[in-house]
UniProtKB/TrEMBL annotation:
Gene3D superfamilies: D-Amino Acid Oxidase, subunit A, domain 2 (3.30.9.10), FAD/NAD(P)-binding domain (3.50.50.60). Belongs to the MSOX/MTOX family. PANTHER family: FAD DEPENDENT OXIDOREDUCTASE DOMAIN-CONTAINING PROTEIN, PEROXISOMAL SARCOSINE OXIDASE. Residues 8-373 form the FAD dependent oxidoreductase domain. Pfam families: DAO. Keywords: FAD, Flavoprotein, Oxidoreductase. GO terms for molecular function: flavin adenine dinucleotide binding; sarcosine oxidase activity. This is FAD/NAD(P)-binding domain-containing protein. SUPFAM superfamilies: FAD-linked reductases, C-terminal domain (SSF54373), FAD/NAD(P)-binding domain (SSF51905). Its cofactor is FAD.
């Protein structure tokens, strides 16, 4: 095995999580190999496209601190790269006054000192004018911690910085197996074409393919309850004369609606005169075999929501003018998996996945956590326990739902879509 290419760390999966991890690892002085099964910056997974929202308004108390930390790390990486991928604007969350999820969001903002303001429909009208309508009986939360991330550009940024700091990057290299090196510890990673690499440590950030890969390398011992979900992003044309009203420059927020289904969107940003509005959910799929088409029912739900929320300022009646397929990696509790693989791999393999459609914004902090675990093992895990205890694999043992939540699931709609 001494003749194999030698690395301190091998990362499997070059989406945003793997690329961020490679960047942080290289900055820590680790000789790092980053492997990707497809082309770099491909569109088959979860880390592509033109926009993702960033927000600190979560019903779970453990996510807002991660977002605040991630915001700082995004800015540090931007400074390192010399260009921006994060564009700040306010975040608007709205929903029925008795929504347990939205009430939890408000409670977290208050407890954690997140700048916010709770508004009724009249106050929203005063702030945003006719641009946004909030139904009677709903409330809104406006926070300064919002904005838009440029996904493909962000992944490219992390990869560029990683290479700058010495990371070796190989795309079109599908991993077939990860085995323990019985002679000197560490692991040997073998590709489908027969290439082999030695790593003292390994991080698996394989996105929608993480369950398949972990099941394979653990010989069926570890079955992560992470389901690939096919979702679709939609772009809608803004009515002529209203285009600037929906831009960040005019103060238009990123937003989320806690009704049924959960709907989210970004200001007009990536495409001229178009606004992104989509449903947070989708249909279960095999990531290697998907439909690549939206569900008709989703479009009808979105039309009704657009009509009520934006009125005639968006051409909802014409339907979306563009759509883009994407994948979620959904856990039953919609929380992440960040943990040692364990078993015969011990602390040598760390797994990160199940980001459940809301992980992109967290990539800088997740990358740093993964490097901490690689370098420090269980000692580092103990120090990080308050941050990562919710993400352990063991939470599903004897409890298939995982972490207990006292508010509604955000992706309840996936069961409806999956039957269509």
């Amino acid at each position: 095995m001494s003749t194999l290419p030698q690395f301190d760390l091998i990362i499997i999966g070059a989406g945003v999580m793997g690329s961020s991890t490679a960047y942080h690892a290289a900055k820590r002085g680790l000789k790092t190999l980053l492997l990707e099964q497809f082309d770099l910056l491909h569109y088959r997974g979860s880390s592509h496209g033109e926009s993702r929202t960033i927000r600190a308004t979560y019903p779970e108390a453990y996510y807002p601190p991660m977002v605040i930390e991630s915001e700082k790390l995004w800015r540090e990486a931007e400074t390192d790269a010399g260009y921006n991928v994060y564009f700040n604007t306010e975040q608007l969350d709205l929903g029925p006054f008795d929504s347990t999820s939205l009430l939890a969001v408000i409670a977290n903002c208050e407890k954690q000192g997140i700048s916010h303001k709770v508004m009724d429909s009249k106050e929203v009208h005063v702030k945003f004018g006719d641009k946004i309508n909030v139904p009677e009986g709903w409330v809104a939360v406006v926070s300064e911690n919002g904005g838009v991330l440029k996904p493909t550009k962000a992944v490219a940024m992390f990869q560029t910085l990683a290479v700058k700091y010495g990371v070796v990057v190989k795309d079109k290299t599908e991993v077939a197996d990860v085995a323990v090196d019985e002679e000197k510890g560490g692991v040997v990673v073998r590709s489908g074409s027969g290439e082999m690499f030695y790593g003292k440590k390994c991080v698996v950030t394989a996105g929608a393919w993480v369950s398949k890969l972990v099941r394979n390398v653990s010989k069926g011992v570890v079955n992560l309850p992470i389901q690939a979900i096919e979702t679709t992003l939609f772009y809608w044309r803004i009515k002529e004369g209203c285009e600037k009203d929906f831009t960040i420059g005019k103060g238009f927020p990123s937003f989320a609606s806690y009704g049924e289904p959960y709907i989210y969107g970004t200001p007009a940003f990536e495409f001229p005169d178009l606004i992104k509005v989509a449903v947070h959910g989708g249909r279960e799929c095999d990531p290697d075999s998907r439909t690549w088409r939206p569900a008709a029912m989703v479009v009808e739900y979105l039309k009704e929501w657009l009509k009520l929320t934006f009125g005639d300022r968006v051409k909802w009646e014409d339907g979306p003018v563009m759509s883009q397929s994407c994948l979620y990696s959904m856990t039953p509790d919609e929380d992440y998996v960040i943990d040692f693989l364990g078993g015969r791999f011990g602390e040598d393999v760390v797994v990160a996945g199940g980001f459940s459609g809301h992980g992109f914004k967290m990539a800088p902090v997740v990358g740093r956590i993964l490097v901490d675990l690689v370098v420090g093992g269980k000692v580092a895990a103990a120090k990080l326990d308050e941050k990562i205890k919710w993400f352990k694999i063991g939470r599903f043992e004897g409890n298939p739902r995982g972490n207990v939540k006292h508010f509604e699931d955000q992706v309840r709609f996936r069961e409806v879509i999956s039957r269509m």
